[in-house]
Amino acid sequence: MKKLFTTLSNIWKIEELRVRILYTLLILLVYRIGSFIVLPGVDPRSLEGQAKEGLLGLLNMFAGGSFSRASIFALGVMPYISASIVIQLLGIAVPYFQKLQKEGESGRKKITQITRYLTIAITALQAIGYVKSQIGPEARLISDPLFSISAMAILTAGTMFVMWMGEKITDKGIGNGISLLIMVGIIAQLPYGISAEFISRNTGQGGLIAFFIEFVALFAVIMFTVLIIQGTRKIPVQYAKKIVGNKQYGGVRQYIPLKLNAAGVMPIIFAQAIMFIPSTIGQFFPSAQSSVLASFSDYTSVAYNLTFAILIILFTFFYTAITINPTQMSDDMKKNGGFIPGVKPGKSTSDYIDSVISKITLPGSIFLALIAILPSLAIILGVNSQFAHFFGGTSLLILVAVVLDTLQQIESYLLMRHYDGLMKTGRIKGRSDVSVASAGSAI
């Protein structure tokens, strides 16, 4: 406890860090207040009790409950994330975007500008679908077309404002702005999930003992998730010695840390998008629903979870392959006079790195698939659906990863001012603590 208070005191003594933390907290407070401001012309009482399940429930969690409340921030940062994913994929397939990625700071600014424009377009389309599908006539106090036009304009402006707040946290706060906004939205739903599970258990379904066991299981799952995110395979790299005058350069051994889960949460997001297709088809053709469509619409069914796990494994290999280029790593290593001991430079090096990536990606993808289906397994075992979301899936991965990144940012400020870090046993490693070998995890 004394170590904790000493660390907090050291954090408060660093003026720059103190200002950044207070600025971040202020922005997060504005975001949470905005999530409770209902769209003009909507009766909030008619929206009470509308539970969101499946993908809509996940979107509502990411938005901190704004989605179900018809808030001005109802769409949250998801349109921006969608735009970022599209631009990232275009950077792999389209030569123009590949050129921009190689132009350094100027190219990055152009990509950011294009991403913002694409975010506006995606937000406008999602706003149309949100107004038409989520806000029924009974909840509207203003008649169309005035309501639809005003709601779509406000939703688009709300998402752009949220994106601006995320960028401000990144620039003037403690970093990871967009990720922090998502994390705060997820944490905001945790009290509701805990209270719902407590009420459910306290009414006779297992009692408080089962409630305590669930918390122990949740702690074990969080520790397991930390191991998956932190797990790396270090490849030693030896650099040749260079003597210039009386000074020696190089000759040191470094390591390329290849992450066990280099794809982050992207495989789960892609797989969830595909698994949402059967239920979408069922909504358009309710009379044509078969037992197959029904089983794939039930996210607790065996068919759904088995298919979901297989898709995650496949997408993990795919996303890792397009984000990590062993050939480029081998060429960069050769240009800098580096080599892997016992492996010839050039093609042999790239083949060796590729084989290591393949070997660590398989267990990483299996563990990721297991984490993704844990919420469904928790629901089958009797856990309340609101609380079960925190037993795994995208929400837990984002929570753990963002917390590690934030702690790493704070620790870097402490170490730069010659204070002790946050831990006695070693440095905290977040997702940003990667080498050129890893493209990092996108959110």
TrEMBL record:
The chain crosses the membrane at residues 21-42, 72-97, 117-135, 147-166, 173-194, 206-229, 262-282, 302-324, 360-381, 387-407. The keyword Cell membrane applies. Gene3D superfamilies: SecY subunit domain. It is a multi-pass membrane protein. One of its GO terms (biological process) is intracellular protein transmembrane transport. It is found in: Cell inner membrane; Membrane. One of its GO terms (cellular component) is plasma membrane. It comes from the Bacteria. Keywords: Cell inner membrane, Cell membrane, Membrane, Protein transport, Translocation, Transmembrane, Transmembrane helix, Transport. The central subunit of the protein translocation channel SecYEG. Consists of two halves formed by TMs 1-5 and 6-10. These two domains form a lateral gate at the front which open onto the bilayer between TMs 2 and 7, and are clamped together by SecE at the back. The channel is closed by both a pore ring composed of hydrophobic SecY resides and a short helix (helix 2A) on the extracellular side of the membrane which forms a plug. The plug probably moves laterally to allow the channel to open. The ring and the pore may move independently. Belongs to the SecY/SEC61-alpha family. Component of the Sec protein translocase complex. Heterotrimer consisting of SecY, SecE and SecG subunits. The heterotrimers can form oligomers, although 1 heterotrimer is thought to be able to translocate proteins. Interacts with the ribosome. Interacts with SecDF, and other proteins may be involved. Interacts with SecA. This is Protein translocase subunit SecY. It comes from Pseudopedobacter saltans (strain ATCC 51119 / DSM 12145 / JCM 21818 / CCUG 39354 / LMG 10337 / NBRC 100064 / NCIMB 13643). The lineage of its organism: Bacteria, Pseudomonadati, Bacteroidota, Sphingobacteriia, Sphingobacteriales.
